[in-house]
Amino acid sequence: MKWLAPTTIAELYDMSAKSLHRMIDRGELPAVVFPNGKKRVSQEALEKLLRRSSRKHGCRPSALGEVDAETGDSLTRSSAVHSSGSDRKCL
């Protein structure tokens, strides 16, 4: 199982690490919290959140680590497509 730091997730999905920490603190995103306060989120928990969010907001986010077949570019949150075709960001 792959574990990710909130800062890593924030960079991948172009969002605030603070927001991720708040989601973890509210129990919206399960994470392991070590005695020194460091938090890690499993890739499985992150993907589950992305699927839930995509259904709620009508987005089709890319899977973590997915690559565009034509360009070879990494697909991240910023490349997610809203079902309406708008540029609305999805998470």
Q: Any idea what the radius of gyration is? A: 14 Å
Tell me the strand order in the biggest sheet. Answer: 1-3-2
CATH architecture: Orthogonal Bundle
Within the CATH hierarchy, at the fold level, what is the topology? Multidrug-efflux Transporter Regulator, Chain: A, Domain 2
CATH class, named: Mainly Alpha
Q: Helix content range of the residues, please? A: 25-40%
Shape call: globular
Main beta sheet strand tally, sense and closure = 3 strands, antiparallel
Q: Domains counted in the coordinates: how many?
A: 1
- Cα(first) to Cα(last) distance is 21 Å
Can you tell me the residue ranges where pLDDT is under 50 for at least 5 consecutive residues? 76-89
Number of strands: 5
Query: H/E series, N to C?
Result: EHHEEHEE
**Secondary structural class:** alpha+beta
Concise account of the structure shown:
With about 90 residues, this protein is of the alpha+beta class. The protein has helices at about 5-10, 15-25, 45-55, and strands spanning about 5, 30-35, 40, 60, 80.
Summarize the helices and strands and which ones pair or pack.
Blueprint lengths: L2 E2 L1 H7 L4 H9 L6 E2 L5 E4 H15 L1 E2 L20 E2 L9
Helix pairs in contact: 1-2
Would you give an account of this structure?
With 91 residues, the chain is α+β, with helices and mostly antiparallel strands. The chain has a single domain (3-82), classed as Multidrug-efflux Transporter Regulator, Chain: A, Domain 2, CATH 1.10.1660. It has 3 helices and 5 strands. It has helices spanning 6-12, 17-25, 43-57, and strands at residues 3-4, 32-33, 39-42, 59-60, 81-82. The strands form 2 sheets. It has a 3-stranded antiparallel beta sheet. The chain has a two-stranded antiparallel ribbon with strand order 4-5. α1 packs across α2 (17-25). The chain is globular. 15% of the residues are buried. The model is unreliable at 76-89 (pLDDT under 50).
